[in-house]
Amino acid sequence: MALLDLTRFGRAAPRFLDMAPAQADFARAVIDGLSRPEKQLPCAFFYDSIGSALFDKICDTPEYYPTRTEISILRDDGEAIAQRLGRAVQLVELGSGSSLKVRLLLNQLEAPMGYVGLDISRDHLRMACERLAADYPTLEVTAICADYHDEVPIPPPRDGMPRRRVGFFPGSTLGNLTPPHAEAFLARWRHVLRFGGTEGGGMLIGIDLRKDPAILEAAYDDAAGITATFNLNLLARINRELDGNFNLAAFRHLALWDADRGCMSMYLVSRLNQIVRVADQRFAFLEGEAIHTEDSFKYTIEGFQAMARRAGYTPAAVWTDPDGLFSLHWLEA
Ligand SMILES: C[S@@+](CC[C@H](N)C(=O)[O-])C[C@H]1O[C@@H](n2cnc3c(N)ncnc32)[C@H](O)[C@@H]1O
Q1: More exposed terminus of the chain, fewer Cβ within 10 Å: N or C?
Q2: Which residue's CA lies nearest to atom 11 of ligand 1?
């Protein structure tokens, strides 16, 4: 019996490219971060399958305004946004998570040539892209598990050259980088988006805006404690994957607005003096000592556009919600 070539019917399973960082990178980053005088852990490691599922739950909390606000902008201004992106584009989503917001774009775009979801959370990415491919049967879907700080070769669609390549980076995930790193990141991806032979691409990027610190602190410390569980999952992941013995009850979640740096910062604070083991290393914690786990920088529209210009882009359009909580920028590459 001949196997059906489902690609002919537009119902292929997504292409899956696995360039995930090695487990040794996780171990190295944890040992290095906990050995520093001011302990820290890289926020990319929040996202294993459990962390990604917890992030989706955070998005549903009443306090976490960014997700529903960005969705409302994509809904209200979807037509204008799609016009800016243009027809026959290859859409590359960075930190694609559950690939939910992109559906609002896909519903508006004219004849997109392909979708590439790029995320570090392997199983979550795979399932999200499988769901997307099932719901958009004529769309060519590619899932790439990788760290977007690495050089990631993006394959062109199988069915020919797109008119241009467009990056989609929602969720204000860029805010997890310090402004100099964010600028360098944008500049590096600009070269990927301007790839040979196409009409010059662009980036559609969601950026959270500066606001009353009380709104921000509530968003990063919801009453149901889901963000706290998300933060603590990093220690649970170290226990699971690196033979750690963190007692999660001995740490508490803390989220603070840092007015000097313009960011929300998250910490895990030791409730007592304690020694923790990770692999074959031991780390001493004093009562009140913190592990810095995440920064989320907030911008003004003008401040973000100035940074995008320095990274080589032309900020060509911006959409916001009526309360000015969140912004979605179209940057020509
Ligand atoms: C704040 S969540 C946003 C998810 C989704 N894009 C949204 O807007 O709701 C950040 C996403 O980026 C991914 N991510 C974080 N660091 C990453 C890295 N270094 N490389 C690739 N993906 C990363 C996470 O797995 C997660 O899905």
Answers
A1: N
A2: 95
